[in-house]
C-alpha cells in the first residue's frame, strides 16, 4: 500500500485494488495543487502563453499553405484545447471552474472539438499526491485519522476543480464516499478571479463590448459556496428532503460524524456516470435516464424551486442493477426566487407556443436582452432562444439522436459571436440555471435519447 509519513502499522487496510505506489485511479494524474497568487498567476500566464504560441504556430502553418485563416480558426484548435485543459487541470480551483463553464456554455460558440476537450475538466482534474492528501486529512481529522476507518482507498474515484473523492469503510460497516477539498482552493478564489479579470482585459481576447465582470463575480460567489462543505452538507439534506421518495432518483445520506468544512462524507453510491450509457446502454435505458433527469430539471425549477445547478454528467450515477440514479454534489444548489420562476414559466410558455412576442417580453423581463439593445444582437439572442424551444414544441418524444438542433444552434451562436457579438452575458442569477438546462439537453443529445419534453414541462407551464 502507499507509504505515508507515519508507521505503516498505523494505516488502515487498503482496498483490494489499491496500488502500491502513489498513483491515481485510471485516467487520473497526480500533481500538487499550486498555492499562492504568484504561483497560480505563473500557471495562468503559462496557459495564455501556450495558447498564443499555439495560435502563432497554427497561423504560420496555414499561411505557408497559402491559407488566410480567421483568428478563431487558429485559436480554437484541438492542440490549444489540450494545452489549456492540461494547465487548468493542474491548477484546479476557480480557474478550472471557469474552464468547466466554457466547456458547457461554450457549446453554442466554441468549435465542438475545442469544447469536447475542455469537457474533460468536468471530472478529470489532476489528483493530490498522497503526501498532500495525508497532510490535508491530518489537518481536518488529526494525525491519527487512519484509525477512523477499517479500509480507505488511496486511489480517488474522481477529481475535479474543488476536490477529489475517495471510498472508505468505517469500523461499524458504513461504506462512505469522502469528498476531500484540494488544499488552498478556498484561499485562492479571490486571487484566481482577480487574475482572470486581468486576463479578460487583454485586447482582442473577447468580443468588443462583452464584459465578464458580472460573470466572474458570480463565479467568485459560487465557488465560495462550493468550498464550504458544511453548507453543502446542509444543502444536500435540504434537497434530499425536498425531493422525497422517488422510484428512480435518490440522494445519498450525509454522515455528519465524518464531515468537516473541508470533507464531506456521504453514503457511497454505486453506479457509473450516466453519459457512459451513450456507448453501452440500451435505447430503453438511455430514454429512461434522460427522461428522469429532464423531469427532475422541470421539478427542481417549478416545483421544488431548489436547483442543483452543476450539470456535470458525473454528478448522476446510474446503477444498472437497480435502475436508479444517484444525485451528487449540492455545493451549487440554488434556491430560485418566486418572481424568477414566474418569468421563466412565461418564457417556457412562449417557447412552447412559438409566440415570438411573449418570448421577447419574457427575455426583456429576465434580462437576456435590453430595451436599447442593438436590433441585430437582440434578434440573434431571441432566435437562439426560439430554436432552443424546438423540443418543447414537438408532439410526443423528441429524438435527440436524430436531431441536428445543437448543430444549428452552434452555427447561430458562432455566427453571432464572431459577427455582431453579444452585448451582455446572461444575468448573474440566471447564469448557472442556464448551464443546468443546457447541460440536461446536452445529456439527452449525448445519449441519443427520445424524450417527451412537453410531458415533462407541461404540468409546470
Give an account of the 3D structure:
The protein is an alpha+beta fold. It has 18 helices and 13 strands. It has a domain at 272-461. The protein has helices at 37-64, 71-75, 78-91, 93-105, 112-119, 130-141, 185-200, 213-226, 229-243, 277-280, 283-304, 338-353, 356-366, 375-388, 390-393, 405-417, 428-446, 453-457, and strands at residues 149-152, 158-159, 163-170, 175-181, 249-250, 263-267, 272-273, 306-308, 316-319, 324-327, 333-335, 398-399, 450-451. The strands form four sheets. Strands 1, 2, 3, 4 and 6 form a five-stranded antiparallel beta sheet that branches. Strands 5-10-9-7 form a four-stranded mixed beta sheet, with no helix packed on it. It has a two-stranded antiparallel sheet with strand order 8-11. β3 and β4 form a beta hairpin. It is globular, with a radius of gyration of 23 Å.
Amino acid at each position: 500500500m502507499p507509504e505515508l509519513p507515519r508507521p505503516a502499522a498505523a494505516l488502515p487496510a487498503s482496498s483490494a485494488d489499491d496500488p502500491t505506489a502513489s498513483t491515481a485511479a485510471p485516467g487520473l494524474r497526480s500533481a500538487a495543487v499550486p498555492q499562492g497568487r504568484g504561483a497560480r498567476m505563473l500557471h495562468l500566464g503559462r496557459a495564455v502563453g501556450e495558447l498564443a504560441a499555439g495560435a502563432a504556430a497554427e497561423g504560420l502553418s496555414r499561411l505557408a499553405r497559402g491559407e488566410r485563416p480567421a483568428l478563431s480558426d487558429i485559436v480554437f484548435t484541438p492542440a490549444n484545447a489540450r494545452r489549456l485543459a492540461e494547465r487548468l487541470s493542474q491548477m484546479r480551483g476557480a480557474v478550472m471552474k471557469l474552464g468547466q463553464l466554457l466547456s458547457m456554455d461554450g457549446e453554442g460558440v466554441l468549435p465542438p472539438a475545442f469544447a469536447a476537450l475542455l469537457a474533460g475538466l468536468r471530472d478529470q482534474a489532476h489528483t493530490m499526491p498522497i503526501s498532500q492528501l495525508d497532510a490535508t486529512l491530518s489537518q481536518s481529522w488529526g494525525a491519527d485519522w487512519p484509525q477512523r476507518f477499517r479500509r480507505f482507498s488511496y486511489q480517488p474515484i474522481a477529481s475535479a476543480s474543488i476536490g477529489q473523492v475517495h471510498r472508505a469503510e468505517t469500523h461499524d460497516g458504513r461504506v462512505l464516499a469522502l469528498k476531500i477539498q484540494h488544499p488552498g482552493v478556498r484561499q485562492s478564489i479571490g486571487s484566481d478571479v482577480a487574475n482572470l479579470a486581468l486576463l479578460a482585459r487583454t485586447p482582442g481576447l473577447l468580443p468588443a463590448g462583452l464584459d465578464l465582470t458580472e460573470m466572474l463575480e458570480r463565479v467568485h460567489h459560487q465557488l465560495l459556496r462550493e468550498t464550504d462543505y458544511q453548507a453543502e452538507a446542509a444543502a444536500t439534506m435540504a434537497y434530499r428532503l425536498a425531493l422525497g421518495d422517488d422510484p428512480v432518483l435518490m440522494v445519498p445520506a450525509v454522515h455528519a460524524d465524518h464531515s468537516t468544512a473541508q470533507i464531506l462524507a456521504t453514503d457511497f453510491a454505486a453506479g457509473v456516470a450516466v453519459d457512459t450509457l451513450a456507448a453501452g446502454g440500451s435505447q430503453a435505458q438511455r430514454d429512461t435516464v434522460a427522461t428522469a433527469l429532464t423531469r427532475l430539471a422541470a421539478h427542481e425549477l417549478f416545483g421544488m424551486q431548489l436547483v442543483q445547478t452543476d450539470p456535470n454528467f458525473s454528478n448522476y450515477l446510474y446503477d444498472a442493477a437497480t435502475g436508479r440514479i444517484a444525485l451528487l454534489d449540492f455545493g451549487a444548489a440554488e434556491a430560485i426566487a418566486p418572481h424568477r420562476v414566474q418569468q421563466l414559466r412565461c418564457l417556457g410558455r412562449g417557447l412552447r407556443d412559438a409566440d415570438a412576442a411573449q418570448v421577447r417580453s419574457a427575455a426583456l423581463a429576465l434580462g437576456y436582452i435590453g430595451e436599447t439593445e442593438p436590433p441585430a444582437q437582440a434578434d440573434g439572442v431571441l432566435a437562439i432562444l426560439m430554436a432552443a424551444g424546438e423540443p418543447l414544441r414537438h408532439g410526443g418524444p423528441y429524438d435527440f439522436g436524430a436531431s441536428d438542433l445543437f448543430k444549428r444552434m452552434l452555427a447561430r451562436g458562432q455566427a453571432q459571436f464572431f459577427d455582431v457579438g453579444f452585448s451582455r452575458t446572461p444575468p448573474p442569477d440566471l447564469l448557472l440555471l442556464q448551464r443546468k438546462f443546457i447541460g440536461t439537453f446536452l445529456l439527452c443529445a449525448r445519449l441519443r435519447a427520445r424524450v417527451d419534453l412537453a410531458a415533462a414541462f407541461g404540468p409546470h407551464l
